[in-house]
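#struct-help
A.M.: can someone run this one for me? Single chain, 150 residues.
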Amino acid sequence: MVRRLHNVNRRQCLESCDSIKSLLCDENGQISGSRTMVAGFTAGIAESVFAVTPFESIKTQLIEDRKRAQPRMNGFIHGTRVIASEQGIRGFFKGLVPSTARQGANSAVRFTSYTTLKKYAEGVFPSNENGKLGTVGTFAVGGLAGIITV
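D.P.: on it. Structure tokens below:
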């Protein structure tokens, strides 16, 4: 369940980055490398606040609870209820600053790499009449950008 939610959140991060990139484009619709990096960093912050940090916090607290002599949490749903009732909303945002720094930096590098590789690939391997990459090319570029950020 957490893995499926993580994949949904990754797609939302991609959509966030595209939305932010559209706001940072110049009057010709182009975006510089530094603005792409800002868009990626901002999308990473959004991903951290709305998806990564809450799930990481729950996961970490579940792991720590299992180490106790008498664990109190019985799985993800029950653990989420216990955290909410005992700690409130703050319980889901433990570790926000380091998580946000990691996600922001990771997304900045990932999206800058992706955009740079995609522009290069479209110049070398255009796969349709308007010079854009097809599905396979886009998938390959995304995979390379993912390898760079691992």
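A.M.: thanks! The CA atoms of residues 58 and 77 lie 10 Å apart.
D.P.: also worth noting: The radius of gyration is 19 Å.
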